[in-house]
Amino acid sequence: MNFGYGFEFDADVPVKGPPLPPFLRPLQRKVAKWLDVPVARVVEALVTEYQPGTPIGWHRDREMFDAIIGVSLAGWCTLQLRPIRDKTKGATLSLPLEPRSAYLMQNESRWDWQHHIPPTKTLRYSITFRTLPKGIPTPVPT
User: Fold this and answer.
1) What does the alpha-carbon distance between residue 7 and residue 129 come to, in Å, rounded to a whole number?
2) What does each C-alpha distance from 83 to 55, 103, 109, 113, 131 come to in angstroms?
3) Residue pLDDT, tens place only, 14-64
4) DSSP SS3 for 102
5) pTM higher than 0.90 for the full model?
6) Burial 29-67 (b: 16+ CB within 10 A, else e)
7) CATH number assigned to the domain covering 2-131
8) CA atoms 59, 64, 68, 72: torsion sign
């Protein structure tokens, strides 16, 4: 489920989605505090269920977003990162994501690296928050 600022992949444009539900708002405020940004900049929350064996392919999130914050729930997984400009694709970093952990991609890790999650071994949930860059007006209520 996507809340707040969604994205229409076929048209490659942002779209208005449903507002963040009340149960996500305390976590949205914690993310804003962690990043030291106004809560209005934390504009998207994506809640995802991963059945055992579910992967996420290599990618970098859409450029319209700034920081990417992930909260890992339930099962463990591994977040792998590789530099976008590495032609050999040999230099990867692995980061274990345990239940109730969080990660932040900003600056170099956000813009110069791709990330993916190999097939999960157990049921896992995640909440991914995305921020808009400073100075961009928020298009939806938060």
Assistant:
1) 13
2) 19, 17, 9, 4, 22
3) 677 899 999 999 999 999 999 999 999 999 999 999 999 999 999 998 888
4) strand
5) no
6) ebbbeebebebebbbbbbbeebeeeeebeeeebeebbbb
7) 2.60.120.1520
8) negative
